[in-house]
Structures are given as structure tokens and as C-alpha cells.
């Protein structure tokens, strides 16, 4: 079997705070093969974006990082600028939540895309790079791409800017694309268009994709597998359809129950607040908010591992001492 395009092994990320350290990630491990799609979901502060930034070596210098992140076999943790510049763009691309942040407002969009192409495709001339950039704009659904090549970000709508950002991220044909809350600022119709575009591009190129989102409907619609994060850990993982149909962790069940529907128009919520990440917390981080473990001593004394749940062949895992009490 070929080597996974992404391997994250026991990743720990901590930030300095008030003379100590605050944990953002606590021993996260995932792997992703070519062509696979993975959703990362969880509340704000669960560690989703930190994990995404760690994959690209974009964590701040103040962060203390342990464990391993390998992209196409190259180690990211502790890597120097030369290695990171080779990995970014060529092996892994990133699309941010707000395209206005990732696009330079004083340069036309075509020039920004050609820069990516020439940096990661040595020997590509200006004329060829322009041709490839126009093609990239066309692939993401920008009409009249040759004309719009010379336009600036403010001349595009929000949805079109997001398409430009995707074109720029894909210009060097990365093997893995990471999208971080890519549809948050878009209306529902444009969201559907962007998500459909990402799905088509992934299937056409056998590219792996990670979708970081707090929107469970987005993840359910475009990913094959999902990893649910809480308190800097992955608490449940498995095929997206199976996890949504029968969550094995109480936190996952709470997230899914919070999605309003025609059958359940009343909005549900998980009581309490997410953990702060401070050191010294024992047991399951979700225990204070959990209906299964709030009164059980083991939940406050022992951190549950990410163990197989129900049918191991289904590749479902849950970090809960009592996941057997959850419906499958």
C-alpha cells in the first residue's frame, strides 16, 4: 500500500499563558490517503484550526509542539523554511475562511495565481504561467477568466473571491487541500456552489481534502470520514454517514441534536462551557457536561482512549468509557 498523504502522530500543541502552558492539542493522531475526504468538527476552541495550521507549519513561534506531522512523507514539525516552502502549495494547499484575508488587495488576482505557479513549477515562463492561471480561474467557475485575470479582489463578489482563493490554492496541483471554515461568510446558495465545486475538483484529481467546519451539514455533504474534536482531542471518528446516523460519543450526539430540522424545529444545546485547555485537568474533558458521565467517578479520573466501537470493521472509534450505552 502507498504511504498516506498525511500522517499526524500524537500531536501536542501548547501556548504560553500566565506563566504556564495552555494545551490546544492533546495527542491527536490521524491519517489520510490520496483521494480521501475528512471533516474536522467541534465547537470553537476544540482545536480544529490549530490542527489545520500545524499541518502547514503555520503555528506561531511561541507554540510548543510535540509529536509528528508528515505531509507526503516530509516531516513538518521542526522543519526549516526550505522544507516548508516546498511542501506548502506543492503538496498541501490551504483555503481560509475569508478570501479577503488571503488575497492581496493591491494585486490583481491573476498575478497572485501566476506567482504560485512559477514558485512551485520551476522553469515556467510568464506567458505559460498566465495561460495556466486563466485555466485555473475557468476550472473554478469564473466566467470570462481571461478578462477577470486582470481584476482585483474588490471587483469580485464574496462567492467569486472564494473561488479565486480555491484556484490559487490548487494552482500547483497539491495532493492535499485544507479548507478552514470556507463557507462561513457565504449565503446558502453560494455555499452549495462552492461545496459542489470542491467535491468535483477532488474527484477529478484524486486529491485528498480536509474540511474544517463548525457546520455539520457542510461536513455531512462533502466528506467520507469525520473526526469530532473536543478539548484538543479527537473524541470520535468514523465514516461520516455512520457517525451522523448513530453517534458513539455523547458530545457528538449533542452536536447532532443541535441541528434544527423540520422534524425537530426546537434548537437543542449542550449545557456548560468547553474546557479552557489549562493543565491539571484529569479524566474526560467532556465529563462536566455529559449526561452519561457527570456522576460517574471513572469519567473524572481516567482519560478514555480512542477505542473501537461496536463493529471494528466499520472503522469507528470513540473516546468514551460508556460509548456502549450510546445507540449505534
Task: Describe the 3D structure.
There is one protein chain. With 328 residues, this protein is an alpha/beta fold. The protein has helices spanning 48-55, 81-87, 99-102, 109-120, 126-139, 145-148, 158-170, 188-205, 216-222, 240-245, 250-257, 297-301, and strands spanning 6-17, 20-32, 37-41, 64-71, 74-75, 92-95, 176-180, 208-212, 225-230, 233-239, 307-308, 317-318. Strand 4 (64-71) and strand 5 form a beta hairpin. It is globular and about 65 Å long.
Write the layout of secondary structure elements.
Elements: E1 6-17, E2 20-32, E3 37-41, H1 48-55, E4 64-71, E5 74-75, H2 81-87, E6 92-95, H3 99-102, H4 109-120, H5 126-139, H6 145-148, H7 158-170, E7 176-180, H8 188-205, E8 208-212, H9 216-222, E9 225-230, E10 233-239, H10 240-245, H11 250-257, H12 297-301, E11 307-308, E12 317-318
Parallel strand pairs: 3-8, 3-9, 6-7, 7-8
Antiparallel strand pairs: 1-2, 1-4, 4-5, 9-10, 10-12, 11-12
Helix pairs in contact: 4-5, 4-7, 5-7, 7-8
Percent in strands: 15-25%
What is the approximate shape? globular
- Output the number of helix runs: 12
What average pLDDT do the residues reach?
88
CATH class of the largest domain: Alpha Beta
| CATH overall fold name of the largest domain | Rossmann fold
What oligomeric assembly is this protein in? Answer: single chain
Tally the structural domains: 2
Regions with little confidence, pLDDT below 50 for 5+ residues? none
Radius of gyration: 21 Å
Strand order of the largest sheet: 6-7-8-3-9-10-12-11
Number of strands: 12
CATH homologous superfamily caption of the largest domain: P-loop containing nucleotide triphosphate hydrolases
Q: How far apart are the termini?
A: 31 Å
- State the order of secondary-structure elements, H for helix, E for strand: EEEHEEHEHHHHHEHEHEEHHHEE
CATH architecture of the largest domain: 3-Layer(aba) Sandwich
Structure classification: alpha/beta
Q: What profile does the largest beta sheet have? A: 8 strands, mixed
How helical, in percent, are the residues? 25-40%
GO molecular function, one term: ATP hydrolysis activity
Pfam families: ABC_tran, oligo_HPY
Keywords: ATP-binding, Cell membrane, Membrane, Nucleotide-binding, Transport
Membrane topology: Peripheral membrane protein
